[in-house]
Structure formats: C-alpha cells, structure tokens
Request: fold
Amino acid sequence: MSDEFKVIPPTTKVLCPERGEGWTLTGITGIHEHTSVMFNGVRYTIAAKEIVEHLLPNYLKQHGENASTE
Reply:
C-alpha cells in the first residue's frame, strides 16, 4: 500500500470481525498514526494502517462500496 491516501475524517465507520461495527473518534492523516476507534461503547487505540487496510474495507464490503463512511 502507498504511504499516500485520502484523509479519513472522524466518525468514519469501520468493521472488525472480533468487535463488530465501530467508528473512528479522531481523523487519520497519515498511515503511521494511531487513532481512537469506538466499538460497543469501548474506546480502542488502533494503528491507522490496520484501519485503512482491514477495518474500513471490511465495512465497505459488508455495506456496499458506496456506503457512507461519515
């Protein structure tokens, strides 16, 4: 994956196989950051790379590629 990607805003929806559906509490501006994600009322700090490469695509696959991420 390229180190360049579109900025991901706060409240972007994501999907984790273990934790279910959640959303970012902070935005992502770089692939080497960590950001807060809320799953079922619990806040987790997760690497941006994990969100961009796995959690966001999981959500888009489940809800359709045109699903709103905000």
Observations:
- Strands lie at 13-16, 20-24, 34-39, 42-47.
- The chain has one domain: 13-63.
- DSSP finds one helix and four strands in the chain.
